[in-house]
Specification:
It is built from 11 helices and 9 strands. By secondary structure, the chain is α/β, with parallel strands linked by helices. Strands 1-2-3-4-6-9 form a 6-stranded mixed beta sheet, with helices on both faces. A 3-stranded mixed beta sheet has the order 5-7-8.
């Protein structure tokens, strides 16, 4: 492992962070609780992603989990505690999760989800918010909030962008849990891999991004894709042209074009 952790990261109870071969691994580490979410887990995830974003040793980030379940959603004890919350407390708590999802969505580095088991409710949100997601065929996905009188509110903002209105309505209004192949067909996840091959496939893909792609180009592309849905056609095209022009003047672009013209293999 290549990184030196801060005392804050070393003190984390529910999350592990490590770097290997320029890949930063953020691991949900509550297998006894099916990696369920509560306020403390969300806090630690935010800390880990903040560190990863600024960690020069990590070029690509992988979000994964220990045990057989990726994330079962909200912790039962946490749900019970919420019964005593008023509106102000509920808004603060909801904003806490919203900030995590926004942080991952806008992170300067590519985030790959490695889903080795079921991802439900908030856990399915974590899997879907990643830029790319690998999952095993046995994993199941779903947003079951409507079955307990709750709302899959925060994730809906991102799902509408990712899979469109029809698929989002199908998932969120039904509360159905779907198999990995259906999640793949919907565009909720990106790749399927067997349990035996999942970790290696993720590692190989992440290493290829590290080796073949400019970190600056991936960062700006991710930022651009997050911003474009907010714009109308003409405004979006003007914005895209501006980013194109800016990219042409960047050091990475000059380096990449020079290598291409000289038929040299570039190392990023």
């Amino acid at each position: 492992m290549e990184n030196l952790l801060t005392p804050e990261l070393e003190a984390l109870r529910y999350i592990r962070y490590a770097v290997e071969d320029r890949i930063g691994y953020i691991t949900l580490n509550r297998p006894d609780k099916r990696n369920a979410l509560n306020a403390d887990v969300v806090t630690e995830l935010k800390q880990a992603f903040e560190f990863a974003e600024n960690d020069e040793a990590a070029k690509v980030i992988v979000l994964r989990a220990a045990g057989d379940v990726f994330c079962a959603g909200a912790d039962l004890a946490y749900i019970q505690d919420l019964q005593g919350f008023g509106y102000t407390d509920n808004l603060e708590d909801s904003t806490h999760l919203m900030q995590l999802f926004h942080q991952i969505y806008t992170l300067k580095k590519v985030v790959i989800g490695q889903v080795q088991g079921h991802a439900l409710a908030g856990g399915c949100g974590l899997a879907a918010i990643c830029d790319l997601t690998f999952a095993v065929p046995e994993a199941k996905f779903g947003y079951t909030e409507v079955k307990i009188g709750f709302l899959p509110a925060i994730v809906s903002v991102f799902l509408l962008r990712k899979i469109g209105e029809a698929r989002t309505k199908q998932l969120l209004l039904s509360g159905d849990v779907v198999p990995a192949q259906a999640a793949l067909d919907m565009g909720l996840i990106t790749f399927l891999a067997s349990k035996e091959e999942l970790a290696q496939n993720v590692r190989t893909y992440a290493q290829r991004l590290c080796r073949e792609n400019s970190a600056q180009s991936m960062e700006v592309t991710k930022e651009m894709l997050a911003h474009l849905p907010e714009l109308g056609l003409e405004e979006g095209l003007r914005y895209a042209a501006q980013r194109n022009a800016e990219a042409r003047g960047s050091e990475d672009c000059r380096k990449g074009i020079a290598a291409f013209l000289n038929k040299e293999k570039i190392g990023w």
